[in-house]
Amino acid sequence: MRPSRLTPRRLAMVLLLLAGCLLLSMALALTMGSVRVPPGTILQALSGRGAPEETSIILLQVRLPRILLAALTGAALACAGASFQAVLRNPLADPYILGISGGAALGAILSTLTGGDSPLSGVLARPIFAFAGACLTVLAILALSRSRGVTASTPMLLIGWIFNSFFLALILFLETAVDFSRVRGAIFWLVGTLSPVPYPVLAGLTAAVGSGFVILWLLSRDFDLICAGEETARHMGCNVERTRVVAILAASLITAAVVSFSGLIGFVGLIVPHAARFLFGPDHRLLLPASALLGSAGLVLADALSRTLLAPTEVPVGVLTVLVGGPAFILLYRRHRGEISHD
Fold it and tell me: CATH homologous superfamily of domain 36-341?
């Protein structure tokens, strides 16, 4: 069945529906945890009237910042994944598989080892180091996968996978070679664990992710043209190489911003864009925001499940996403195997 033609009305209706789903998932996540909080108490705490002080602290200083971080992380990874799949014309591309998440995580670890994560500079140092790690990874992958002036997507995936394995091994080496107290957070980047962060940091992350998303959304038409074929895109006036570089850098920005605080959460950028494409069609004007909202809602619910599945023990949310995403990756590979082999 062919997807309906995208109109402003359909765009607004779908995004409002998904925004409602996101708000519902966030409300549900606020009630879940070692301490169950009724919806009425949540409303009292959010309004600042009538809720017990201890409950307000749990909701406003622990659960809500963590939920907001999960929403930002899910949106960034899903939007980045949809962009990578478009510009590389490869359905298996995502920040985790390409090694960009690993490069960002290594940069975040190095910021701690070099003292960049000190109280004086820690607010900005970790994201800056993470972005530098992601950008250097992107530049290396682009250089190694470029042949005769054209970037080939399949070699890029293979090189990215090797880089990712190398970065994970290097992080483990650093964890064992230096004073453990200096890299005690390394395990969080390896398995992907969300924790509360201050609201000013969330505001900065929102600005970074929002800026990257706007850049990617403005490239929606070019993404559609590239997906139809690079030669077709060039005939329609699209500068394919420039679009590819700008998109990869913007997607790396939003990936690095969230990875510096959430760690390596895999397969969100792979699975969510395919779900959004199946539900709403391939038009990137809708696909990008739909992927962002679905990724937000999905990771918020996954994090809530990670907090309650084996309570009081917490399962890292990155473990859950890999357990779901691994089999889904195999199914996607089988479905698109012929398309990938002829890249």
Answer: ABC transporter involved in vitamin B12 uptake, BtuC (1.10.3470.10)
